Each structure stands twice: as C-alpha cells, then as structure tokens.
Amino acid sequence: MDLITKAPRGTQDMLPEVAHKWQHIEQTALAIAADFGYREMRTPVFEHTELFHRSVGETTDVVQKEMYTFTDRGDRSVTLRPEGTAGAARAVLESGLYAGTLPVKVSYVTSCYRYEKPQAGRLREFHQFGVECFGAAAPTADAEAISLAHTLLAQLGVTGVTLYINSIGCPTCRAKYHEALKAYFTDRQDELCGTCRDRLERNPMRILDCKSPICHEIGAAAPVILDFLCDECAEHFEAVKACLNAADIPFEVDPHIVRGLDYYTRTVFEFVSDALGAQAVVCGGGRYDGLIEELGGPHLPSLGFAMGLERLLMIMDAKGCSFPAPPACELYLAPMGAAAARECFAIAAKLRAGGVAVQTDVVGRGLKAQMKYADKIGAKQVIVVGDNELETKQAKLKDMDAGTETDIALDDSMYTTLYQRSLDRQLGAMSDLFRSVAE
Ligand code: ATP
Ligand code: MG
C-alpha cells in the first residue's frame, strides 16, 4: 500500500517545536484580551453558507472565489468559516447575549479556510486571533481594539509594524462616494478585470480591494472616501485619532484602505509588517455598525479585528523574537529490572500529581541507553533505581547540569524535596520572565 504522506495543498502541520510557539502566541493573545475585558468564545468550524453571503458580502473575493462550500448529507449548503466575525456575531445573536450587559466583548483563536493560491503567508487553512466588541458606538471602542492589537504585538516583541487607519464612512456618505467612484471607473472600465467590471454597478468600492495589478493601479488615482465623509463620521474619525495620540500609539492615515469584507463602516485599520513581503498585512479590522442588523438583529454598533497567526509567527521568527523555553523534564527515573520499573512508575505518578514533570522508561532500555536518553531530552535530574536502591530505600539524585550527586531517601521525604525543587525552578523561570518583560 502507498504511504499517504502529503497534506492537502495550503495546509500546514504544527510539529511539537512549532506548536510550542503557537501556545505562547495564543496564550499571550488571550491573556491580553482578558486584560481588556474580552472573554474567549468558540464557534463551529462550519456555518450555514447564507451567513457568510449576508455578512462578508456577495461581491467580495472571499465569497466569490475563496469559500469552501459544500452540500452536506442532509442537502444543506454549509461553508467552512473563512473568517471569525460572522460566526461570533451569529452566536451573540442566537444566544441573546446582546440583550444583556453591553458591550459584549469576545475573543477567539480559530482556524479559517479560504481557497487561495498557496504561497508564503497565504494558506488554505490558516489561523486568526480575533476580538469583537458588540454594542459600543463610541470612538474609544475603536481605539481600544487598536490598542489591544498594538499591545499584543509589543508584548510579543514584534518590531517593524506600522499601523494604518482610515474611515470608510457610513451608508450615507458612501452613497455619494459610490457615485464618484462609479463615474471614475466607468471611464476606464475596459481596462478593469472581469470581476471588477461586474462590481462597478453593484459595489464599486470592492474594485479598490482587487488584487489584479491593473485594477490596483487604476484604483490608486480614484477619489478617496475621506473627502466624502458626513459630519458625524468625520467627527468620529477625529476622535479615534485623538485617542490614539493620547495613548502614544503611532499611526498613519491611509485613505486607500477599504478592507476586503463588506460589513465594515467608519474606522478601518491594518497593521503592516516590513518582514512579510507581499503578504504584509498581519492584522486587519474595523467597525461594522450595520452587520448585526444585516443578520436580522437589532441596531448594534460593533467592531473587531483579526490577526493572521501564521503571518505573526513568520514576523516573530524573522525578527528573532524570543519564546519561552519548551517545558523541561525535571526528573528522569531510570529503573533497572521489572520490580524497579514498577516502583518508578508509581513514584512518577505521585510526583506528577504534585506538578513535577517526570519521565521514566517505557521502552525497556538498559541503564546506559536510558542515561543517553535522559541526556537527549534534557532531563534536569536523574535517579537510578535498581534492586539495591529498592532494598535500602536510598538512592542518588544526580543533577545533570552541575554533574553532582546527592543522597535521597526513597520515602515520603523524597516527595517533599522534589516538590520543593520543582516549585523553586518554576518561580525562578517566572522571575526571569518578569525581568525580560521589564527590560
Ligand atoms: P489579504 O489582503 O492578505 O488577502 P485579507 O484582507 O483577505 O488579507 P482579512 O480577511 O482581513 O484578510 O483577515 C485578517 C488577517 O488574516 C489578515 O490580515 C492576514 O493576516 C490573515 N489572513 C487572511 N487570509 C489569509 C490566508 N489565506 N493565509 C494566511 N493568513 C491569512
Ligand atoms: Mg484575502
């Protein structure tokens, strides 16, 4: 039989060394979100296809070209989530959370699925850390979400990222803007790609987001939305900028940002890295005041962002950001013989119950091979247990780094000693971490 050794195109395995980095990123992200009052939420990998048509928008690249949509055995059309906002909004509506205390602030780490041409930083299965804040109309909410992303990048040690912000107004200002855009693009419609010629009537703003180089070039000279903002939207945008300035969060205004999803209104923003080449946007987000109504709910001004975690990890590796050391084996118990193996197994179980990271032989190796293995896995301490040790209840505890040996009794006092050493080591690691953050 042939070995099945190839994962589907555009997917990635996270082998243990890499998964360890992911844990660090995810834990840091969710912890910072919690500091901002965002609580983790999890939603299904697939949703009714209609949800994404209604929220992401019919004329977007995501809906037109990228969704993994299929008919299930019950003849329903379902879609693997291409992003996290739609599911979160659906869940908040369905659960009635929006009728309780506002705002509802949620965070998530999810896998997303888009049928794209795989390349560095662009996958078919990728992951996002995202936050959504439902029921917050004030400009401080926009600035707070931006501040959250900014804080996370800073805490992870990411440098070389620039924040760009823009306002794409509300339906009122956009009506006038659409007219101006339509007039501009109609003059050059023969040069646009086929998809964008269709978009000209239905949603001319989407042309500004087209990845085709020629559409992009034509779009660069198009009228900008900032010139069409109504008084309320202009005021909101000024207030967001004032908050960012007050908190010393550097940004640049880029009037060309429109974002690739239809639900955005007013503030939109992107964090762009200098280390990613063509796929430079590591985080994108903005306000979506009309989305909840679009899904059949009440008027609920809301906003959020999503950060691409594969791209984030690429930046962290490129910038040499540090990650905590992988969890070490604190103690390796090396048995000689069947009786010792049973005893080591029992001691290991009891030590682990007290939070000590312990391993013992599960292969049936001789002592020499076990010592080699203990060295390879970086065990901090080793205790060899043979018939003699079992009989005298006395053994040697070897400190692998120092190369020293001390006597240890194989009785209750051993547990006290080892629990204490483990605790000391963890406290030491924690104070190292605090020191490195403070520096
Ligand atoms: P792009 O313009 O690069 O296609 P997008 O506007 O489609 O990005 P969003 O829908 O805003 O992206 O998703 C938020 C973030 O998720 C992006 O900024 C990016 O970091 C990440 N992301 C989006 N698509 C992919 C993908 N196919 N592979 C890896 N990461 C992705
Ligand atoms: Mg895209």
Give Rg in angstroms: 28 Å
* Poorly predicted spans: none
Give the CA-CA distance, first to last residue. Answer: 56 Å
Query: Which small molecules are bound?
Result: adenosine-5'-triphosphate, magnesium ion
* Strand element count: 16
Kindly name the structural category: alpha+beta
CATH C-level label of the largest domain: Alpha Beta
Give the biggest beta sheet: 8 strands, mixed
The percent of residues in helical segments reads 40-55%
Placed side by side, the strands forming the largest sheet appear as 1-5-6-11-10-9-7-8
**CATH architecture annotation name of the largest domain:** 2-Layer Sandwich
The CATH superfamily of the largest domain is identified as Bira Bifunctional Protein, Domain 2
Q: Determine the number of helices (DSSP H or I, runs of at least 4 residues).
A: 15
Mean pLDDT: 94
Strand content: 15-25%
The count of domains is: 2
Shape label: elongated
CATH topology of the largest domain, by name, is: BirA Bifunctional Protein, domain 2
Task: Explain how this protein is built.
The protein has 15 helices and 16 strands. With 439 residues, it is an alpha+beta fold. The protein has 2 domains: 245 residues, Bira Bifunctional Protein, Domain 2 (BirA Bifunctional Protein, domain 2, 2-Layer Sandwich), CATH 3.30.930; 108 residues, Anticodon-binding domain (Rossmann fold). The strands form 3 sheets. It has an 8-stranded mixed sheet, sandwiched between helices. α5 runs parallel beside α9. The mean pLDDT is 94. The site of magnesium ion has 2 residues, from loops.
